Amino acid sequence: MHFFSSRMSIVATALALTVGLVPSAQAVGEKPAPDTLVPVMDTEFYQISSRKISVPVGSPYITALGPSNVLSLDWDFELAVTDISAGTSRALGSLGLPAESRVLDIYWDSLMSSNASRASVMVSYGEFGADKCRRSVLREARIDLTGAGANSLGTVWFTSPCYPAAEGYPLAQSGGRITRALASITGVKNPRQLFFTIGDFALSRAQMDALPAKSRKYLTTATLLTGPRESQIWARGLRNAQGVTTAFVDNKHVLLETLHGPRGGDQINVVERDGDYGWPYYSYGTPYGGDQPQNTAKNQGYTNQKYPPLFAWVPSIGPTSVIQVSGPTYFSWWGNGQNTADVIVNGMGTHWLYRLRIDGGAVRYVEPIFTGVRLRTLIQMPNGTLVGGVDASSSELIVFSPSSIWDSSGGYKAL
């Protein structure tokens, strides 16, 4: 089991008072203004500068598209491409998906096709159909990067059967995050394999238990997509995984996921094949209310003992993207002489980033880094720059990069 030590609150308070981290006009004990970007952030090893780039559409979901381009997909399925080096952005039109849908992710990697005029990317969304059922859908999108032509879609995979609708917003807690499945994890050399997360769609424990087994098949899972319309369940019991990546940890490749607990109990997990991570029967969190999954009193505040989380946050941080640092841009976080590189988790709910050092099967420490802005997604570009998509109507990308490093003389030295 891994918990924050009592020192974590002291560390967070100390960081909040560090010069340059919080605007000097802010009184001690006040909450930072929401969505107010901190231009310079102090960390243990770096001062990180940040800048905004305006985008002609919303930018909550983003993916790197080559060395300096970022592809954005907003809540209305409008697209834009941004050159973060030049600071320029242009709209690319719409994917034209049904109105009763919720975008969940957009994903591109170097194994997928791209040139100056077109790119193939994966798009996922939750769909609330005319039959009043909910399903998770993954489609391959062909994007016209010139903005002059039509964008097209082809269905790759969807959950079947669908899930019955519940009261409230029908596509909440859908999961839907995508990453490449490595042969070193699956044991199968297939460049088309993807990992895809599926949440519980806000169904209560009683509602899930009442479903036929075939209808529960994909709920709360990490699913391995092995080909068009082909899949297998990789692991279960993952409430609402909003971040997924493959990482090199303790000398081996693993699948990492961050997930939202209920009130408390957000997690990062090493997700093993055939693992069951407990939801809705175990959680470090407690229920929100009668319409949310209810754990028994015996199991509240606990998790599945066979597959405990690598780390759990109480109270919640709203974790979304998880990335493993690569390349020398953040060289003190990149291996640092160890057998693993540090992991960055985006805390959407807290407006912090969290740097995790993982070693020997455990999170050894967590460094919170205050940004002041609510990011839905965080990616790392090939050159090591971090880019975040703002979870708001402000239509902005945030670009982070180290501007100075901590040296042995006891201060920051400009890069």
Question: What can you tell me about this protein's structure?
Answer:
This protein has 415 residues and is mainly beta. The chain has a single domain, classed as Neuraminidase. Helix content is 6%, strand content 44%. The chain is built from four helices and 28 strands. The strands form six sheets. Strands 1, 2, 25, 26, 27 and 28 form a six-stranded antiparallel β-sheet that branches. Strands 7, 8, 9, 10 and 11 form a five-stranded antiparallel β-sheet that branches. Strand 5 and strand 6 form a beta hairpin. The radius of gyration is 21 Å and the shape is globular. 46% of the residues are buried. The N terminus is likely disordered.
The SS-based structural class is: mainly beta
The number of helical segments is: 4
CATH topological fold name: Neuraminidase
**Average of the residue pLDDT scores:** 86
Total DSSP E strands: 28
Question: What ranges have pLDDT less than 50 throughout 5 or more consecutive residues?
Answer: 1-31, 290-297
Instruction: Please tell me what the overall shape is.
Output: globular
Could you name the CATH homologous superfamily? TolB, C-terminal domain
Structurally, the number of domains stands at 1
Strand content: 35-45%
CATH architecture: 6 Propeller
- Helical amount among residues, as a percent range? under 10%
For the termini, the CA-CA separation is 39 Å
For the record, the CATH class is Mainly Beta
Rg over CA atoms: 21 Å
Largest sheet: 6 strands, antiparallel
